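Closing statement on the nicotinamide-adenine-dinucleotide sub-project.
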Amino acid sequence: MSENKPKIVVLGAGYAGMMTTKRLMQQFAPEEAEITLINKHNYHYQTTWLHEVAAGTIDVNRSRIMISDVINPKRVHLIYDTVKKINKADKTVQLENGKVDYDYLVVGLGFEKATFGIKGMEEHAFSIQSVDKSRLIRDHIEYQFARYRNEANPDSSMLTIIVGGAGFTGIEFLGELAERIPVLCKKYDIPRRDVRIIDIEAMETILPGFDEELLNYAKDSLEARGIEFKLGTMIKEVKADSVIVGEDNEEIKAGTIVWTGGVQANRIIGESGFELTKGKVNVDATLRAPGDEEVYMLGDCAWVMNNETGKPYPPTAQIAIQEADVCAHNIKTSIFGGTLQEFSFDDKGTVASLGGSDAMGTVFDGNKLYGLSASVMKNVIDDRYLFLLGGPMLVLRKGKFRPF
Ligand code: FAD
Ligand code: NAD
């Protein structure tokens, strides 16, 4: 690649990074720009399926896609390394094993769990955050079942699973647990009544702010499959084998504690000197970091303002994917001239899986879907992304509707 071409560097191969790289390949001829994609692993994963990996209802490999299968390594320089820091002053990115310089930077390093300083959370709670961390949850739960069978007088709390938070991640994970636990009970000859799955949520309702009819449907569906809810109860502390909750500091013992209580931008952003608002960068309408015109901040690293409500959009894969188009267009415009595009979110709705063939949500203009039709819609949404990323062959290989 020639030395004088503009260097565009994309950090993170999540929804934002992968789709931006695809769009950059479409926007630029090979001689017009040097495109580099840097990611920790040689695979991209479907973050939106990690609750299934964590519960063990899908195989890990189903959620992973080799990056070089969808991004042509002859067009894009692929670097598999860990980003350590962005040096804005000299426009370089420090990696674990090297340094890369950029003219334009796209930051799609995603999220990490927000622990809000809760004592013991970092050390003792699992989180659904990456393929490796999710697989650890699956293995830990199964280990507790195996342990229970092997102890003379097993403590039944070993089989208690606590999920902290009843946002969408928590609810989707509970749905998968509701399906998975009976399978493990059968495998280890353990009665289902010996296992408790308790969700602890600070607010008086699950899915705070969501449609009441739909959240009641979700709650009823989960309770019918043995999930217990403790609402209006704040987790205050996490210990190795218990959580301390509520005003009266009740201690609940558990063998597995999974925190789904919130997310924040990858800490590298703050450590690199970008100004954070509630853990994320408040980008301008063209998706650039304020004061850094050549840095685009996408996906879960960014707050994008909804001008109608005056609040930021919730961080989702849906928005991350849509941001890619505007980002690629604006980088091209910055290089060749023209008018920068402002991002406008086309909200296609929200659908949450509840395990098996159950789901609920709203689509398009607020139509509510429940049960099988919602579950089919969720699979269509997932497969649509695979289609955008890798065409029909990727849908056939990894999609939810694949024929084998
Ligand atoms: P990510 O998808 O998190 O990707 C970040 C990438 O950066 C990863 O590949 C990671 O390996 C890489 N990376 C991180 N740190 C480094 C580093 N230091 N060096 C190199 N590479 C690094 N949203 C929806 O719209 N619909 C859903 O149904 C939905 N379901 C969800 C289910 C779960 C269980 C979870 C946890 C989230 C769900 N979300 C959903 C939210 C959605 O997944 C996120 O908003 C989305 O993943 C954000 O995309 P992203 O590209 O910003 O980051
Ligand atoms: P969230 O912030 O949406 O929910 C966290 C929940 O934890 C909240 O209900 C909060 O009240 C609760 N909580 C916080 N502190 C607590 C404490 N100390 N004790 C008890 N409860 C506590 O986080 P999330 O569910 O991880 O979702 C993150 C983002 O990903 C959101 O934007 C969400 O919309 C998106 N997402 C979307 C889908 C989907 O569309 N199907 C699925 C998963 C996630």
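The mean pLDDT is 95. With this model delivered, the sub-project is considered complete and its resources will be redirected to Aim 3.
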